[in-house]
Amino acid sequence: MKKRSAKNSIQSEVLAAYLDGNATMQESQEILDALCSDAELREIMHISQMVDLDISVRPEDIDYIPMTAMAACSEVACSACCNEMAQPKGNLCSFECEKFILKKLDIEFDEDELLNHALQCGWLKDDGTALHNIGRGLEKMGLVVTRQYKCTIADIMHAKSNGEEVIVALDGGELLGNQQYEEWEDNFVGKNPDHSVVVLSWNIDDMTISVFDPNSLNEIDTYSFEQFEDAWNDSKNYMVTAGVRGKKEYLPKPIDLSDVELPNDLIELREAIAENAHDVWAVERQAQGWVYGEERNDDKKTHPCMVYYSELPESEKRFDREMAMNTLKLLRKLGYDIIKRKN
User: Whole-model pTM?
Assistant: First the structure.
């Protein structure tokens, strides 16, 4: 009897949903398992990816930021990992990292209260913690938290040398999982920053880095720089630092938007968006008792910009325009498309 291939074991509806980007996590996991053993299915996926690439080419080449990816390392995602893993903690990996840091800094906290607060604020959801919400609990406990992409191991070393704690988002399976399996995931499913760990130390001589991993049986896990960076690259090298208030120098590093181009119809709306932004600011100021004055006076609550947008000097209009355009560019950078509804 002819052996049934893994491809044939995947229902056509499931494969179609996957190719359309509508498969569930469980369905994606089934397809990924099949890809590891079925060369025919891999060829189908490769051809599909080439077709998708041809029809989705855009004039811009945006290096998208996975800010809304969920750090969770769920049981499904961990099912292929090796037996060195502890019982997966569901969607709590980021919460466990924050707990670890608070205990390390001898900061007293109520675990149940902190967890409930994270749930109420939406920082922690059923499917994990969005990358941009990692560290919110540390903020609540009074620490100064920063979030940055495109970081390096040198950046980690600098932060740690300044007495800061560091959490990074990465692909958990690329640390504790089956490496061949993870390679298939990167190639056919995509980069998957599904986990977070606390960086503890490094060794330049051995080129290794040590971490606290909530999903590991070990208190400390040590990896080569190469393996760590391979897993970390999935999040575009996202790093969250936490330090004591008053001891952390403010060095703003906004997300680079230089590779984002806006379509003409959005550029044409620049003035409308900027004017509305000015009106929103003015309404808030009026509610606080501010009025027009030739000079700004915080005691008298007078401000020269408390006028119609058309009366603003070009320097102020330019500020509103840049804020509006950078907000739209950031949405594109995060992978969102703005679609105009037909009149």
Answer: 0.73
